[in-house]
Design a protein that fits this description.
It is a single chain. With 253 residues, this protein is an alpha/beta fold. Among the domains are: 100 residues; 49 residues. Helix content is 55%, strand content 18%. It has 4 helices and 7 strands; from the N terminus they run H-E-E-E-E-E-E-E-H-H-H. It has a 7-stranded mixed sheet, with no helix packed on it. A hairpin with a 2-residue loop joins strand 2 and strand 3. The chain is elongated.
Length: 253
């Protein structure tokens, strides 16, 4: 069977398209793994990587600057995470730049986040340096706490529902009060009587204060006049003594 010219053209086109797709795939993979740009490596250690996987993104200031190159279990409490980063970001990183594990959105893939640093050290990072790490948030513990809170809220709502039902049916003191007109009227009368009593007490207290003020004023006024009277009598006695002395002097002469 001979191959016609049209078939050769089709085969050639398929070959070209296949090569183009292959080149595009290689370019995308290479670009994702930084195969076509200068890179350097750093690493950090964690107790738990919370589902982080090789190939996940590394972000600095919200920008993807590298990938997770390798994850190695060192021992039962330590996991080493190696990062491959673009050289462009090296000048922004310091020895005290911290790495942490986050997520791309609420339910997205895990990723590594690098904080700038420069607080305790101004030295730049070098290839192969270890960066301090921040322990990841344990999502399981958070979910367990939220579950406990939800259970408690459910119990509280159930208790409130039971209390409301008893009140509506007239059970308990509050229920009898709200559903018994006689008790409500008696309570209203008691409150009114208490208000009247308090008003009378207030009025009596005001009157007593006025009486005390008047009595105090009278006492002070009485003392003032007594004092004036004594002063006047003393003055009269003094004048009389002076007159007596004057009368005695001519007689002696």
């Amino acid at each position: 069977m001979k191959t016609t010219g049209s078939q050769k053209i089709k085969i050639g086109l398929f070959t070209i398209v296949g090569l183009a797709v292959l080149i595009a795939i290689i370019f995308l993979i290479g670009n994702k793994r930084n195969l076509f740009s200068s890179t350097f490596g750093v690493y950090g250690t964690f107790k738990n990587v919370n589902g982080l996987a090789v190939g996940n993104n590394v972000r600095f200031a919200g920008i993807t600057v590298g990938i997770v190159d390798n994850i190695t279990i060192i021992n039962d409490t330590t996991v080493r995470v190696d990062l491959t980063l673009n050289d462009d970001v090296k000048k922004f990183l310091k020895k005290d730049s911290k790495i942490s594990i986050g997520s791309d959105g609420l339910m997205g893939d895990k990723l590594v986040v690098i904080a700038p640093g420069g607080i305790t050290s101004q030295d730049g990072v070098k290839n192969g340096d270890q960066l301090p790490s921040v322990p990841p948030v344990d999502a399981d513990k958070i979910i367990a706490k939220l579950t406990g809170i939800a259970d408690n809220a459910g119990t509280l709502i159930q208790n409130l529902s039971e209390i409301t039902g008893k009140v509506n049916s007239g059970k308990g003191s509050l229920g009898r009060l709200l559903n018994n007109d006689k008790m409500a009227n008696d309570l209203d009368a008691t409150v009114k009587q208490a208000k009247t009593t308090m008003a009378n007490v207030h009025k009596t207290t005001s009157t007593l204060n006025e009486d005390l003020t008047a009595a105090q004023h009278n006492f002070l006024l009485k003392g003032f006049f007594n004092k004036k009277k004594k002063a006047l009598k003393a003055k009269q006695d003094s004048i009389k003594k002076a007159q007596d002395a004057a009368e005695q002097q001519p007689a002696q002469k």
